[in-house]
Amino acid sequence: MRRTGRKFAVEAADAITIRLPPSELYGPATMKNLVLASTLLLAPVSMAAAEQPATIQPVVAAAMPAPVVAPSSGPGAANPAPKSTPKAAPKQAPSMKLVEPHLRVARSEIKGHARVALTFDACMGKADERILSVLVSERIPATIFVTARWLKHNPQALHVMLANPDLFELENHGQNHIPAVDKPVSIYGIASAGSPEAVRLEVQGGADAMLASGIPAPRWFRGSTAKYDLSAIAQIRAMGYRIAGYSVNGDGGSLLGAAITEKRISSAKDGDVVISHINQPTHAAGEGVAKAILDLKARGTEFVRLQDVEDNGDDDTTE
After folding, report:
1. Do 270 and 124 fall within a single domain?
2. Do 104 and 205 belong to one domain?
3. What are phi and psi of 190, to 5 degrees?
């Protein structure tokens, strides 16, 4: 019977034994014998490998991890389609256009005599006395956008503002500081109103709180984050409001340092509308706001409120 390559290799390995005296263990003859032995050993192993049929292990589908399918929350989730039926990829919702309107006031057109409108958002929190005291002591007019939540917690600051009607124009910043966007979206981590009815409640709730606090009926509205979708802008305009954008972001949401805040506001030019915050007394930005007001005054700036001058806003916010 013909021996297979595998069996011959084992027998050849058993048959080859090299016995050398200790004196020749590391001599040249040893190396020749080792080479010869290696050749004899490898030859049958190669023959054995050649006689074996080539086999490729197939990839077993069961060994592959199953794809993770997110559970559906829509209709029919309790009756999923059979596994053999491929599911179509979910359609992506069309991107929603959000706008952040710009607003400018009529320029003075007098060289060295810039006209600037200072506007402040009073979102939540406490009044920043560093800013409020400068506005009062220096007799600087400004427009303050207040929420119902801020009014509730700042009666003393409101009393100061109402006692100086020649300085302060109070306008509507909403009821709960919710972005006036009528579709569900998150803006800077804040959930939008999400529907036309929720937008209406945010705007109307802010106005109702102002009237209850003895403030004249507002004519301007500025929503949380100052971002809107176009349909919400149309809705708010239909409620009788002008929408207040801006042209200079003074304090970056009250998150900037004092020096950069002062630099931004001090750079305001003729016709600019500056937005800053008057509700973060512990933030460094407030210090920069107060200093910038004094800088602008020293340059001969004319400060105006939105109700005092003509204005021009884009995205159909004022026309």
Report:
1. yes
2. yes
3. -105, 125
